[in-house]
Amino acid sequence: MTVLVFLDPKFPEGRLADAAVPQLMAADLGATRGDGVFESMLAIDGVPRKMDAHLDRMASSALALDLVFPARESWERAVSTALSKLLVQAGSGQAGSGEAVVKLLLTRGVEGTDSPSAWVAASPVPAAVRERSAQGLDVLLLDRGYDSTVADRAPWLLLGAKTLSYAVNMAALRYAKAQGADDVIFTSSDGKVLEGPTSSVILAVEEDGVKTLLTPELESGILPGTTQRALFDAAEAAGWARGYGPLEPAHLMEADAVWLVSSIRLLAPVTSIDGTPIPSSPALTEELTALLRGAL
Ligand code: PLP
User: Fold this and answer.
1) What is the DSSP letter of 67?
2) Complete domains list, the chain, with CATH
3) Ligand 1 pocket, 84 CB below 6 A?
4) I want to staple 54 with a disulfide (CB 3.0 to 4.6 A). Which of 39, 115, 117, 264 is the partner?
5) What is the DSSP letter of 170?
6) pLDDT > 70: what percent of the chain?
């Protein structure tokens, strides 16, 4: 069940559309070239979470692509319309845990028209997402082929933007699955830990009684994760220290625990890397998930 709402100046609350019939022109540059940006946001009980952080990041992704970003208010209204409709369609108690995936999408529109396409798609979070995370992830380290300083040197690679060109990320996941793994952590050609194809990487380390959360530095060409940031803020308020890379694979192997984190799946513990088991801690996963949920 998916609810679609297009941003449309003629409909201040957004224009509801039928997700079961075609809605985009075949020549839309989002479809033909992946020329657009998107966000995936969690909603719980009809309330979108971290909406400002998602809209901020989407606006900066749009800027990187020279796309005009529709007014935040239009997005907020379309999201609210979509979530109200989803609640009605699901009926009480039927939408699983009451959690929804809300996608915000913006493309350059049909070639030559100078008229972007912008819409919101809301659907229940599939139960499999939470089940998969609970089991722990076998992860492969895969070389992304760029060095960790390329983002600054080659802004046209759009490394810090969340564009619709995710074919490479999906190919990496298929490659990992073909090798019997569940997910991927990309490394740079100079051997630094980067991010997952759809997630940020977080490590916990305890030394001399100080508990620290670590993540690769943003300058290495990764997407600034809204979940990583919310978790770091909440953990710091709870007494954790925080730190940023550069990190190397050895840091992952030596950490007390490693997670892939993202808006929809929250914290998913990594249990092995390239076939080697690594420590994981159900107690830490529980503690940090509670901190994160409290911050959403
Ligand atoms: N890095 C990449 C490449 C992603 O695609 C995502 C989310 O989809 C993330 C990191 C995590 O971002 P967030 O926590 O904002 O969902």
Assistant:
1) P
2) 3-125 (3.30.470.10), 131-295 (3.20.10.10)
3) no
4) 39
5) H
6) 98
- Residue whose C-alpha is closest to residue 279's, from 288, 268, 271, 289: 271
User: 213: closest CA among 224, 202, 223, 222?
Assistant: 202
| 226 within ligand 1 shell (Cβ under 6 A) | yes
Q: Kindly report, residue by residue over 155-166, the tens digit of the pLDDT.
A: 999 999 999 999
Amino acid at 5: V
Taking a C-beta distance cutoff of 8 angstroms, is the pair 193, 201 a contact?
Answer: yes
Residue 227 Cβ < 6 Å to ligand 1: yes
SS3 73: helix
Mean pLDDT, rounded, for 119-135? 90
What's the 22 CA to ligand 1 centre distance in angstroms? 28
Considering only CA atoms, give the Rg of the chain. 19
Q: 165 — phi, psi (to 5°)?
A: -85, 75
